[in-house]
Write a structure and sequence with these properties.
By secondary structure, the protein is α+β, with helices and mostly antiparallel strands. The chain has helices at residues 2-48, 99-110, 202-209, and strands at residues 51-53, 59-61, 78-84, 87-93, 118-123, 127-130, 146-147, 159-162, 172-173, 177-180, 194-200, 213-214, 220-234. The strands form three sheets. It has an eight-stranded antiparallel β-barrel. The N and C termini lie far apart (114 Å).
Length: 235
């Protein structure tokens, strides 16, 4: 009887050790899963907070750049005066290095296409975007886009460039355009047709970029800035 009692006690101790080991393994397994999920979630949030769009569905980095040089094209033979209800922005068009993109912009401007449209999007220290008939970043001209010239040295402050969707070929220009108002434009990849640079009225563009915004992405101007006209002048 004593032996049977000892054997029963030994079996109980063995069962308890087995249960305890299983419990420890389960706790470690669950803890590993929790830690992995927390790290993954943190990485996703960090990645999404450093990106924005330059056209509908186009994702690019907006991390601060290390330089803030301004851009004015050399050898320009045409000037565009963008008259808005906030003031005038004068741009030297890069007829030498971006003839296709410049010609597209000039064609639309001379037809009066942009008259009465708006700057609908703004991001402080980055860009203002306009030229969309729908006023929400999804509209087009109704004609076939051109594939313009892309730069090799990014988009300094004052640069005028074409907005495009992520699925469009590099340099695609339909009708929407943006003006770089801050150093974050320098982080854009060389994928957008750059065809001019602001020579006066940069302060107007930068003022627009700081106006209150909202919408799904937080970058739609609450009060859109009207483009009264864009006139082209030979220089």
């Amino acid at each position: 009887m004593a032996r049977e009692a000892r054997e029963a006690a030994a079996r109980r101790r063995k069962r308890m050790r087995t249960a305890r080991n299983i419990g420890i393994i389960a706790v470690l397994f669950v803890g590993t899963i929790v830690i992995f999920n927390v790290v993954s979630s943190g990485s996703s949030k960090k990645s999404s907070s450093t990106s924005t769009t330059t056209g509908s569905n186009t994702t690019v980095s907006s991390t601060a750049a290390t330089t803030s040089a301004t851009f004015v094209p050399t050898g320009s033979t045409e000037t565009a005066t963008i008259t808005t209800d906030q003031g005038k922005i004068v741009v030297a068009l890069d007829t030498k290095n971006a003839p296709k993109a410049t010609a597209r912009f000039v064609e639309l401007a001379k037809k009066g296409f942009y008259n009465g449209l708006t700057f609908h999007r703004a991001v402080p220290d980055f860009i203002i975007q306009g030229g969309d008939p729908k006023g929400d970043g999804t509209g087009g001209s109704g004609t076939k886009p051109v594939v313009g010239e892309v730069p090799t040295n990014s988009y300094p402050i004052g640069a005028l460039a074409a907005a495009k969707t992520g699925s469009d070929p590099n340099g695609t220009f339909d009708c929407q355009f943006f003006i770089v108002t801050g150093k974050n434009g320098l982080t854009l990849p060389n994928q957008y047709a750059r065809f001019g640079g602001v020579t006066s009225g940069l302060d107007i563009a930068q003022k627009i970029s700081k106006e209150p915004t909202g919408g799904p992405n937080g970058d739609t101007l609450n009060k859109k800035v009207k483009i009264e006209s864009i006139t082209i002048t030979q220089t």
